[in-house]
Amino acid sequence: MSEHTGTQASYWIETAPGLPRPALTEDIGVDVAVIGAGMAGLSTAWEVAQSGRSVAVLEAGCLAGGVTGHTTAKLTALHSLVHQRLRRTRGPEGARLYGHSQMDALRRAAALVDELGIDCDWEDAAAYTYTLDHDRVPEVRAEAEAAREAGLAAEFVTDTQLPFPVAGAVRAAGQVQFHPRKYLLALADELTRRGGQLYEGTRVVGLHEGEPCRLTTEAGYTVTARDVVVATHYPVFDRAMLFTRLAPRREVVLTAPIDAGRDPHGMYITPDENTRSLRTAPYRDGTRLLIVTGEHFTPGTSDSGDHFSRLADWATEHFGPLDFTYRWATQDNDSTDTVPLVGPLHPGSRHTYVATGFGGWGLSGGIMAGLLLSALIDGRKPPWTHLYDPRRLGSVVREAPAFLRHQAKVAQHFVGDRLTPLAGGGRSVDDIAAGDGAVIRVGAHLCAVSRDQAGRVHALSARCTHLGCLVAFNRAEQAWECPCHGSRFDLDGRVLQGPATRPLERRDL
Ligand SMILES: Cc1cc2nc3c(=O)[nH]c(=O)nc-3n(C[C@H](O)[C@H](O)[C@H](O)COP(=O)(O)OP(=O)(O)OC[C@H]3O[C@@H](n4cnc5c(N)ncnc54)[C@H](O)[C@@H]3O)c2cc1C
Ligand code: FES
After folding, report:
1. Mean pLDDT, the chain, whole residue set
2. N or C: which end of the chain has fewer CB within 10 A?
3. How many angstroms separate the CA atoms of 143 and 140, rounded?
4. How many Cα neighbours within 13 Å face the side chain of 190?
């Protein structure tokens, strides 16, 4: 696939641009301040406002412009093979609470779409987790059983409407696909009408916990709030070192129109083939937009270009010639025990909360987080409070293998990358072509040097401002990425994605 196939932008953002909202330009006080306006932040703000509290949402970029604006947008409680895994690690009750809480989130979104008349391409659809591998069928069967026990209308099937045979699949009826940005922008408009304050272009850089809590923005304004929710995807204020329990996973997404006759009628995912996920959405002139996702990798370890090519080849192999219209990439964080971290920010928290670690399922997960966090702020405890509690007991034992694997990788990047002669292969600035970048040694410093398409050289410190790992260049996305916890920076070092909050320092060559 040519690197220039399709527009490099998210279909969801391009087709629902929304109106810009103001940045915060004064000190304010509210009952609850929410940092981050993705699915988790906006859902929380909505629920908190419904309980009569005043709320402000502070968003560094634009509403639903983060991971939520770049997802595949399946709203489902069938999360690949999660229920059978939870049944093993958290027992049948853990799997049941997970399924019920996620179905509860779906029902909540359906009720809001109905009540507010939200036009967001809402379509009921079945969700499938399939495998091509006969050895994996028992796992898929176990998921069908565990998901059914957990309250989903799930069954094991061998027939799907995919254009290729599968060895087996779980089919869950009564799930949903939608346009996440249309949904959230409508919710945000209604929230504003009901008195909620929503600010874009407002990065929060400081959190002082107390009674009340105080937030400081990059522009120097203060938000005073009784309760604070950190919904920044990767938590930017991380007093419980949650970053040790979160591993970032980046994936690529492609879209192409197809005739309605080729629509596989459902939302599909497989853990095979380095993950393949697909669905369709309503498109122009009666056609459907095929949306395919997959090819996951750790940011900072691979160039998205190769992954786009492989995914495009896979899609054309199965759906015939395709004219790709949009392509983008995004990443989510896997928690070491598969369950999102939603609840108090750290063991001593009284008024600070977090929602993170959605593991690729943060649309239902974000809505669930909104319901759970607003209940906790109200002093209520839904039955799944303990399941999602970031302080959960016993998790050290359960998570140990995944935790150690993740830490080993981080250590390898933290120490190993410094010992390797040079990530850039000993290149000099002159060797860097337009559109390329590399880490090179300049005197005593390791510099992240890139050359933009106009030939201008950009030189930055190669040490990530989060905890100092070495960043690597992703050519297809023209971004510096950190392999340790997934921070991303543009060519001028500005933060594209946390946990880093500070830009890469500029270097003089
Ligand atoms: C390829 C891919 C496909 C996916 N498909 C699905 C799917 O089909 N179904 C599903 O359920 N899930 C899916 N997911 C997962 C889901 O999209 C995410 O879990 C979810 O969108 C995360 O929402 P969020 O609100 O936590 O994060 P975001 O949407 O990223 O929101 C966080 C916001 O915080 C802001 N922010 C960060 N730092 C600051 C700061 N210091 N101050 C102020 N604001 C800040 C950011 O700008 C951002 O807007 C997918 C994930 C990937 C990677
Ligand atoms: S993201 Fe943690 S060190 Fe870079």
Report:
1. 93
2. C
3. 5
4. 19
For residues 360 and 23, give the distance between their C-alpha atoms in angstroms, rounded to a whole number: 30
Ligand 1 in contact with 360 (CB < 6 A)?
A: yes
CA nearest to 220, candidates 21, 24, 61: 24
**Separation of CA 251 and ligand 1 centre (Å):** 13
Percent of the chain having pLDDT more than 70?
92
Predicted local confidence at residue 452, as pLDDT? 94
Distance CA 405, CA 401 (A): 6
Q: Is the CB of 331 under 6 A from ligand 1?
A: yes
User: In this predicted model, what pLDDT tens digit does every residue of 11-33 receive, in sequence order?
Assistant: 999 999 999 999 999 999 999 99
Q: Rounded to the nearest 5°, which phi and psi values hold at 58?
A: -115, 115
> Which atom of ligand 2 is found nearest the CA of 464?
4
Question: Considering every ligand atom, which ligand is closest to the CA of 482?
Answer: 2
What number does the ligand 2 atom closest to the CA of 234 have?
Answer: 1
CA-closest residue to ligand 2 atom 1: 485
Under a CB-based contact definition with an 8 Å cutoff, are residues 37 and 63 in contact?
Answer: yes
Joined together, the tokens standing for residue 352 give: 């600070």
User: What does the pLDDT look like over 235-279, one tens digit per residue?
Assistant: 999 888 998 899 999 999 999 999 999 999 999 999 998 899 999
Instruction: Give the burial class of 310: count Cβ atoms within 10 A of its Cβ; 0-12 exposed, 13-18 middle, 19 or more buried.
Output: middle
pLDDT at 159 over 90: yes
Pairing of strands 495-497, 153-157: unpaired
More confident residue, 441 or 410: 441
User: How confident is the model at residue 410, as a pLDDT?
Assistant: 65
Nearest ligand, CA 356: 1
Question: Nearest bound ligand to CA 294?
Answer: 1
| Candidate from 245, 412, 467 with most ligand 2 atoms within 8 A of CB, to mutate | 467
Pair 83, 96: CB distance under 8 Å? no
Tell me the three-class secondary structure of 69-85, residue by residue: HHCCCEECCCCCCHHHH
Mean pLDDT (whole number) for 374-392: 96
Q: What is the pLDDT of residue 261?
A: 93
The two three-digit tokens of residue 398, written as one number: 């359960």
Q: Say how many Å lie between the CA of residue 358 and the centre of ligand 1.
A: 9
Ligand 1 mutation target, pool 123, 363, 466, 502, most atoms within 8 A of CB: 363
Confidence tier at 416 by pLDDT (50, 70, 90): low
Q: Find, among 264, 255, 253, the residue nearest to 128 by Cα.
A: 264
CB 241 within 8 A of CB 234: no
